[in-house]
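Appendix B.2, paired examples.
Example (i):
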Amino acid sequence: MRGLLSIAAAAVVCALNAAPKPGFRAGSAVADITPAGSIWMSGFAARKAPSNGVAEPLHAKALAIEDRKGSRVVILTTDLIGLPREITDHVAARLGHDHDLRRSQVLFNSSHTHAGPVVWPNLRPMFAFDAAQQKTAEGYARRLTDELYRVAIAALSKMEPATLLYSEGAAGFAINRREFRKEKVVFGTNPEGALDHTVPVIDVRSANGKRLAILFGYTCHNTTLGAEFNQISGDYAGAAQRAIEARYPGATALFILQCGADQNPHPRGKSEHVEDHGKRLADGVVKALGGETTELYAPLKTSFQLTDLAFAPHTREQFEEESKHQDVFRARRAKLMLARYDAGQPMNKTPYPVQAIRFGKELTILALGGEVVVDYQLRARRLYPGEKLFVAGYSNDVMCYIPSLRVLREGGYEADTSMIYYGMPGPFTEDVEETVFASVRRVLKQVGVK
């Protein structure tokens, strides 16, 4: 009997020694960023009035991670149309000053819900505010800036030993929206178009195995609800986060929008579609959590770079003519461009952020700014077949659409028309994709991806 007990005890010791030890510390936090009162909503130029209620609250969420050598990252997700650099630069600088975080260690991402508030000065040509409306928009931006800082600090303060696991699921409701009709690209459904239904998932568990946070992504516009819907909502991404948190009480579900600029949910237009898509995405996360996983290890490495994307040539005369256009959005864009010419600083380029966060040799989050079409996500995976890549769009600054060369040459909303609403002078030059990927290669090389 004593021999059997000794064998059993030895087996327990071996099992304990074989079990993975937490390689990180992690903490999460949540802030309510629902606007107080009525506010203009962003994303659809067709809206005629500000919000008239709240269908579901909006949140900013933070996930802080630290490896054993003290290298840290803070990932901030938001149920918003997009965060401009005026906000992200301020929050990142404050975190850097107060908590010694480099710019590469702070990642911002937006779900791009079109049922959320204006985030000033994002998409400014969409709006013609009176004094009170301008005050409301600027006040919300200030409050949001403070909330992002506070939720990041809260996550850092709650860090505890944690294990990180990566897995992938799938959800099939996204469809390519670039439909070709009579040699013209329009909004529609294109079942033959490029897409990616993968659902990447990072599972963050405490030392005793309890789920602390679940970070997941999807590649699809957050536009189940149309311009006629006038209540605040996180759309399908909000519904998915609610469903996941209900399934795993105590865990924080954080959504990252990937390169879904040319993808739409299908079907769309009804509130029941929001709940259905959210459930399907949550089911994809649940399946991933119950499937094959890869444990993530230290070291935690980060890189961040700003590069310039060039616009096609334009002239002052071009915008003087556009300023007389019957389309109010074109006229507003022209006014912004003429102000730049008057100041002797015509907009010939825009700064573009590219960021990488690598966990050991197991996974890299590649974060791209702007509304990025799916071609970038698919190409990045082709270029680095030996690396697990979680490719995010809508990160750090959502300044405009980022078309691939293919999309740029095909034309359509993502290539050109969208620039009106973002207050950009027009389409990019044809080197846009190669310029982005030159920066991608540099940041990935800096974190050890070959």
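Example (ii):
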Amino acid sequence: MNDEQLNELFRAARTDRADTSRAEYGFETRLAARLRAERERFVPWPAIAWRLAPAFAVIVAAAAVWLMATPGINSTDLRSAIADDEVERMLVTHFTGD
């Protein structure tokens, strides 16, 4: 095959347009379905956290109300326990067995 025959084949290939109407049919629908499937397959954790944020806010608010409503350790009791080194004594007793 010489160069002239090859050029003639290339010219014929350039002028002949393939029938792509069958491949074009429903392209947007197929693309949208594929994108939807990809999006449903992979849900990043920030999106999940953003969806759960109201539930977390309710839990935090309920915990705050519960802590405010129940009587707990006074700050003076906590200060005196720290001042008396009660925590350190408890840890030493726990770890040494004395």
